[in-house]
Specification:
alpha+beta, globular, 12 helices, seven-stranded mixed β-sheet, Hypothetical Oxidoreductase Yiak, Chain: A, domain 1, three-stranded antiparallel β-sheet, 12 strands
Amino acid sequence: MHSIPLQRLNPAIRLVVRGFGSSEQEVEAVASNLIEANLTGHDSHGIGMLPPYVEAFLQGGLKPNAHVSTVLDGGTLLRLDGNAGFGQVIGHEAMDLAIGRARQHGSCIVALGNAHHLGRIGAWAEQAAAAGLVSLHLVNVVSRAIVAPHGGADARFGTNPFCAGVPLAGRPPVILDFATSVIAQGKTRVAHNKGELIAEGCLIDDQGRASREPRFTVVPPFGALLTFGAHKGYGLALMCELLGGALAAGMTTRDDDTSKRRILNGMFSVLLDPQALGDRAAFEAEAMAFLKWVQASPPREGFDGPVQVAGDAERASKALRSAEGVPVDRTTWTAILAAADKLGVGARRVDEAAGRA
């Protein structure tokens, strides 16, 4: 494992992203979003995504310097096209539009399609929460299928994340963000790169048998991840595909073509101003009283510290990694350097920027 100080990781990753030909605004958006994912402990959505981004770019499936365009404007209802642009840019622009409408009208429904990998969906709930808005997000993934339906023996859809954010005065927002698979696909990539096994009950091999080997989601012959909570996670994954995919994006996962490297997302989002429903102060007081009640539960054997609320773990990880550096396994870093070479940036320049050369 490498531990790269944040002040060295920032310029190194920005150097790589410039290799796409991105504007400086796009470089900042992509690099900061990826690094933020690492800081919050979600390495699966962090800088390790750069190698697949490069493959998608070289195939023409990722379009640098693209921006969101409005397909339909119904006031409180927006249909947007991401034009295969960097999801870190498209997601932010889509939320900006939605925030403006929700502040004006009290709510907004957004159907976003054709965005390249939107990254950690929690970032978009955090953006809405910073504007004082509650938000819900259902997302589909159009790429190589990686998750099996409940009872199925092979992959039929993506990790299809669900996310919700609730802002509350006097404390950080509550941000719930999870894949509908038991674990995110990127976490199997990280485990594979580290040479680690996956916990039991997370995946199956290419014959549909239970396995702990992450290779079955990284290199052929492919197996599949399982959905969390059996039929419950499967049902939510279906809703993400129907709403984030069929309805919002007009595009679902329904073939087994593994040659295309792009990762496209559709996202169905609902943003709401609590004040538009009535007394915001009363809502927040009741919410805070409930959280206090929940967190007063004594910790169970095997658990350290007080009961946490969604978003607490990410904030703790960010504080630690900001101070001590971001851990990056050797295989992931080598892949990032190889990706930099493919972009014509030069692996040595990136290594030097990170303080590794």
